[in-house]
Write a structure and sequence with these properties.
- InterPro entries: MoCF_Sase_C, MOCOS_middle, Pyrv_Knase-like_insert_dom_sf.
- It comes from Pseudonocardia kongjuensis.
- This protein is an alpha+beta fold and 266 residues long.
- It has one domain: PK beta-barrel domain-like (M1 Pyruvate Kinase, Domain 3, Beta Barrel).
- The chain is 15% helix and 33% strand.
- 46% of the residues are buried.
- The model has no long low-confidence stretch (mean pLDDT 97).
Protein backbone atom coordinates (compact mmCIF):
# COMPACT_ATOMS: atom_id res chain seq x y z
CA UNK A 1 0.00 0.00 0.00
CA UNK A 2 1.07 3.59 -0.50
CA UNK A 3 -0.16 7.15 -0.18
CA UNK A 4 -2.14 8.09 -3.28
CA UNK A 5 -3.23 11.59 -2.23
CA UNK A 6 -2.98 14.06 0.65
CA UNK A 7 -5.54 16.73 1.51
CA UNK A 8 -5.78 19.60 3.95
CA UNK A 9 -8.86 21.71 4.72
CA UNK A 10 -7.75 24.96 6.38
CA UNK A 11 -11.32 26.14 7.09
CA UNK A 12 -13.84 23.63 8.38
CA UNK A 13 -16.51 22.57 5.85
CA UNK A 14 -14.89 24.39 2.93
CA UNK A 15 -13.15 22.76 0.00
CA UNK A 16 -9.48 22.29 0.70
CA UNK A 17 -6.21 21.70 -1.11
CA UNK A 18 -4.30 18.67 -2.39
CA UNK A 19 -0.66 18.63 -1.29
CA UNK A 20 2.45 16.66 -2.18
CA UNK A 21 3.42 16.49 1.51
CA UNK A 22 2.31 17.73 4.90
CA UNK A 23 3.46 17.75 8.50
CA UNK A 24 1.69 15.86 11.27
CA UNK A 25 1.93 16.86 14.90
CA UNK A 26 0.07 15.41 17.87
CA UNK A 27 -3.10 17.28 16.90
CA UNK A 28 -3.12 16.09 13.29
CA UNK A 29 -2.21 17.72 9.98
CA UNK A 30 -0.60 21.09 10.56
CA UNK A 31 -2.99 23.71 9.16
CA UNK A 32 -5.93 21.32 8.84
CA UNK A 33 -9.28 22.61 10.16
CA UNK A 34 -7.24 25.44 11.65
CA UNK A 35 -10.15 27.85 11.24
CA UNK A 36 -13.91 27.57 11.48
CA UNK A 37 -16.89 29.86 11.32
CA UNK A 38 -18.90 30.29 14.50
CA UNK A 39 -22.53 31.37 14.45
CA UNK A 40 -22.49 34.83 16.02
CA UNK A 41 -25.83 34.14 17.69
CA UNK A 42 -25.36 30.80 19.42
CA UNK A 43 -21.61 30.18 19.10
CA UNK A 44 -22.05 26.83 17.35
CA UNK A 45 -19.50 25.74 14.78
CA UNK A 46 -20.70 26.14 11.20
CA UNK A 47 -20.66 22.87 9.30
CA UNK A 48 -22.42 21.60 6.20
CA UNK A 49 -23.58 18.68 8.33
CA UNK A 50 -26.49 21.08 8.88
CA UNK A 51 -27.11 21.86 5.21
CA UNK A 52 -30.13 24.06 5.85
CA UNK A 53 -27.82 26.77 7.17
CA UNK A 54 -24.31 26.02 5.99
CA UNK A 55 -24.14 24.08 2.72
CA UNK A 56 -22.87 27.15 0.84
CA UNK A 57 -19.56 26.66 2.67
CA UNK A 58 -18.85 23.88 0.17
CA UNK A 59 -18.87 26.51 -2.58
CA UNK A 60 -15.82 28.14 -0.95
CA UNK A 61 -12.22 26.94 -1.06
CA UNK A 62 -9.59 27.38 1.64
CA UNK A 63 -5.83 27.17 1.17
CA UNK A 64 -2.67 27.84 3.16
CA UNK A 65 -2.15 27.96 6.90
CA UNK A 66 -1.64 30.47 9.69
CA UNK A 67 -1.60 34.11 8.57
CA UNK A 68 -1.28 32.93 4.95
CA UNK A 69 -4.57 31.00 5.01
CA UNK A 70 -6.99 32.27 2.36
CA UNK A 71 -10.63 31.78 1.41
CA UNK A 72 -11.84 31.93 -2.19
CA UNK A 73 -15.54 32.81 -2.47
CA UNK A 74 -17.89 31.52 -5.19
CA UNK A 75 -17.60 34.86 -7.04
CA UNK A 76 -13.81 34.39 -7.29
CA UNK A 77 -12.74 36.86 -4.59
CA UNK A 78 -9.83 35.63 -2.47
CA UNK A 79 -9.52 36.99 1.07
CA UNK A 80 -7.38 36.28 4.12
CA UNK A 81 -9.29 33.66 6.11
CA UNK A 82 -8.98 35.59 9.34
CA UNK A 83 -10.76 38.64 7.87
CA UNK A 84 -13.42 36.96 5.72
CA UNK A 85 -16.30 37.06 8.22
CA UNK A 86 -18.18 39.92 6.52
CA UNK A 87 -18.36 38.46 3.00
CA UNK A 88 -19.04 34.98 4.40
CA UNK A 89 -21.93 36.34 6.50
CA UNK A 90 -23.40 37.83 3.32
CA UNK A 91 -22.99 34.56 1.43
CA UNK A 92 -24.54 32.45 4.18
CA UNK A 93 -27.26 34.85 5.21
CA UNK A 94 -26.21 34.42 8.84
CA UNK A 95 -23.82 36.46 10.94
CA UNK A 96 -20.58 34.55 11.55
CA UNK A 97 -17.18 35.12 13.07
CA UNK A 98 -13.95 33.41 12.01
CA UNK A 99 -12.18 31.57 14.83
CA UNK A 100 -8.65 30.20 14.84
CA UNK A 101 -9.01 28.38 18.16
CA UNK A 102 -11.65 25.82 19.04
CA UNK A 103 -13.69 26.89 22.10
CA UNK A 104 -13.99 24.38 24.92
CA UNK A 105 -16.99 22.14 24.34
CA UNK A 106 -17.49 23.36 20.76
CA UNK A 107 -20.57 21.78 19.17
CA UNK A 108 -22.13 21.35 15.75
CA UNK A 109 -25.67 20.56 14.68
CA UNK A 110 -25.77 17.05 13.21
CA UNK A 111 -29.18 16.00 11.87
CA UNK A 112 -29.57 12.37 10.84
CA UNK A 113 -28.18 12.21 7.32
CA UNK A 114 -30.74 9.76 5.98
CA UNK A 115 -33.54 11.90 7.39
CA UNK A 116 -32.10 14.92 5.57
CA UNK A 117 -32.05 13.04 2.27
CA UNK A 118 -35.64 11.95 2.79
CA UNK A 119 -37.02 15.32 3.90
CA UNK A 120 -34.91 17.69 1.80
CA UNK A 121 -31.97 19.96 2.51
CA UNK A 122 -34.11 22.85 3.75
CA UNK A 123 -36.43 20.78 5.94
CA UNK A 124 -36.57 21.62 9.63
CA UNK A 125 -35.74 18.32 11.28
CA UNK A 126 -34.29 17.43 14.64
CA UNK A 127 -30.59 18.35 14.79
CA UNK A 128 -28.87 17.00 17.92
CA UNK A 129 -25.78 18.83 19.11
CA UNK A 130 -22.49 16.94 18.81
CA UNK A 131 -19.30 17.98 20.56
CA UNK A 132 -16.48 17.90 18.05
CA UNK A 133 -12.83 16.86 18.45
CA UNK A 134 -13.55 14.47 21.30
CA UNK A 135 -10.46 12.48 20.30
CA UNK A 136 -8.15 15.45 19.66
CA UNK A 137 -6.22 17.75 21.95
CA UNK A 138 -5.44 21.33 20.97
CA UNK A 139 -7.61 23.83 19.16
CA UNK A 140 -8.27 22.43 15.68
CA UNK A 141 -11.83 21.97 14.45
CA UNK A 142 -11.63 18.29 13.45
CA UNK A 143 -14.76 16.17 13.80
CA UNK A 144 -13.22 13.60 16.13
CA UNK A 145 -9.66 12.24 15.92
CA UNK A 146 -6.79 14.17 14.34
CA UNK A 147 -6.44 12.31 11.02
CA UNK A 148 -8.91 10.80 8.56
CA UNK A 149 -7.87 7.97 6.21
CA UNK A 150 -9.75 6.18 3.46
CA UNK A 151 -8.68 3.44 1.02
CA UNK A 152 -9.05 3.17 -2.73
CA UNK A 153 -10.71 -0.21 -2.12
CA UNK A 154 -13.58 1.55 -0.36
CA UNK A 155 -13.77 4.45 -2.80
CA UNK A 156 -13.75 2.16 -5.83
CA UNK A 157 -16.41 -0.13 -4.39
CA UNK A 158 -18.69 2.83 -3.67
CA UNK A 159 -17.91 4.63 -6.93
CA UNK A 160 -17.40 7.90 -5.05
CA UNK A 161 -14.64 10.49 -5.47
CA UNK A 162 -12.37 10.99 -2.48
CA UNK A 163 -13.18 14.70 -2.28
CA UNK A 164 -16.71 13.92 -1.07
CA UNK A 165 -15.46 12.10 2.04
CA UNK A 166 -12.90 14.80 2.86
CA UNK A 167 -10.02 12.53 3.96
CA UNK A 168 -6.52 13.67 4.84
CA UNK A 169 -4.85 10.55 3.45
CA UNK A 170 -6.03 8.34 0.59
CA UNK A 171 -4.33 4.94 0.78
CA UNK A 172 -3.89 3.03 -2.47
CA UNK A 173 -4.64 -0.63 -1.75
CA UNK A 174 -3.77 -3.69 -3.87
CA UNK A 175 -6.26 -5.23 -6.29
CA UNK A 176 -8.59 -7.59 -4.46
CA UNK A 177 -8.56 -5.63 -1.20
CA UNK A 178 -12.10 -5.73 0.22
CA UNK A 179 -14.16 -2.58 0.60
CA UNK A 180 -14.21 -1.06 4.08
CA UNK A 181 -10.85 -2.62 4.90
CA UNK A 182 -10.37 0.36 7.24
CA UNK A 183 -12.66 -1.41 9.73
CA UNK A 184 -9.86 -3.96 10.18
CA UNK A 185 -7.26 -1.28 10.88
CA UNK A 186 -8.88 -0.20 14.15
CA UNK A 187 -6.55 -0.60 17.10
CA UNK A 188 -3.64 -1.59 14.87
CA UNK A 189 -0.63 0.53 13.87
CA UNK A 190 -0.41 2.36 10.54
CA UNK A 191 3.14 3.36 9.59
CA UNK A 192 3.68 5.90 6.81
CA UNK A 193 7.34 6.75 6.37
CA UNK A 194 8.48 7.80 9.84
CA UNK A 195 4.94 8.60 11.01
CA UNK A 196 2.89 6.25 13.17
CA UNK A 197 -0.90 6.45 13.39
CA UNK A 198 -3.33 4.38 15.45
CA UNK A 199 -6.85 4.11 13.98
CA UNK A 200 -9.47 4.89 16.62
CA UNK A 201 -12.96 4.82 15.07
CA UNK A 202 -14.73 4.05 11.81
CA UNK A 203 -15.67 7.36 10.16
CA UNK A 204 -19.44 7.97 10.41
CA UNK A 205 -20.87 9.48 7.26
CA UNK A 206 -23.08 12.55 7.50
CA UNK A 207 -24.97 14.32 4.70
CA UNK A 208 -21.90 16.29 3.54
CA UNK A 209 -20.67 13.74 0.94
CA UNK A 210 -24.04 13.96 -0.82
CA UNK A 211 -23.95 17.75 -1.26
CA UNK A 212 -22.64 19.90 -4.08
CA UNK A 213 -18.89 20.46 -3.75
CA UNK A 214 -18.04 23.48 -5.86
CA UNK A 215 -19.10 22.54 -9.40
CA UNK A 216 -19.50 18.87 -8.47
CA UNK A 217 -23.23 18.00 -8.31
CA UNK A 218 -25.13 16.27 -5.53
CA UNK A 219 -24.53 12.53 -5.01
CA UNK A 220 -27.01 10.77 -2.67
CA UNK A 221 -25.21 7.48 -3.38
CA UNK A 222 -22.25 8.73 -1.32
CA UNK A 223 -24.37 8.12 1.77
CA UNK A 224 -26.62 5.33 0.53
CA UNK A 225 -23.65 3.09 -0.30
CA UNK A 226 -22.24 3.04 3.25
CA UNK A 227 -25.78 2.90 4.67
CA UNK A 228 -26.48 -0.27 2.71
CA UNK A 229 -23.07 -1.92 2.97
CA UNK A 230 -21.23 -0.80 6.09
CA UNK A 231 -23.33 0.01 9.12
CA UNK A 232 -20.99 -0.60 12.03
CA UNK A 233 -20.75 0.16 15.72
CA UNK A 234 -18.95 3.44 16.41
CA UNK A 235 -17.97 3.49 20.05
CA UNK A 236 -19.93 6.14 21.89
CA UNK A 237 -22.13 7.00 18.90
CA UNK A 238 -24.10 3.84 18.00
CA UNK A 239 -24.46 1.91 14.75
CA UNK A 240 -23.87 4.24 11.79
CA UNK A 241 -23.03 4.18 8.06
CA UNK A 242 -19.25 4.41 7.85
CA UNK A 243 -16.47 4.72 5.27
CA UNK A 244 -12.84 5.26 6.20
CA UNK A 245 -11.39 5.62 9.68
CA UNK A 246 -10.14 8.22 12.11
CA UNK A 247 -6.70 7.90 13.69
CA UNK A 248 -4.60 9.49 16.39
CA UNK A 249 -0.96 10.44 15.88
CA UNK A 250 1.48 8.37 17.89
CA UNK A 251 4.70 9.45 16.15
CA UNK A 252 4.56 12.79 14.27
CA UNK A 253 6.53 13.73 11.19
CA UNK A 254 6.20 14.29 7.45
CA UNK A 255 3.95 12.31 5.12
CA UNK A 256 4.54 12.45 1.38
CA UNK A 257 2.60 11.30 -1.65
CA UNK A 258 3.90 7.85 -2.62
CA UNK A 259 5.09 6.89 0.87
CA UNK A 260 4.69 3.21 1.72
CA UNK A 261 1.86 2.37 4.11
CA UNK A 262 2.07 -0.61 6.47
CA UNK A 263 -0.61 -1.85 8.84
CA UNK A 264 0.60 -4.07 11.67
CA UNK A 265 -0.70 -5.41 14.95
CA UNK A 266 -0.16 -3.02 17.86
Amino acid sequence: MNVLALYRYPVKSMLGEELDAFELDGAGVVGDREFALLDAGDGRVATAKQPRHWRALLQCRSTGSGPAAQVTLPDGRTLPAASAAGPLSELLGRQVVVSGARPDGAVVERPDAEAVLAAGLDAEIDAPLLEIAQGTEGGRFVDHSPVHLISTATLDALGVDALRYRPNIVVATPAGTPAFVENDWLGRTVTIGGVTLVPTLPTPRCVVPTLEHGDTPRAPEALRGPAQRNRVEVEGFGVLPCAGCYARVEVPGTVRRGDAVQVTAS
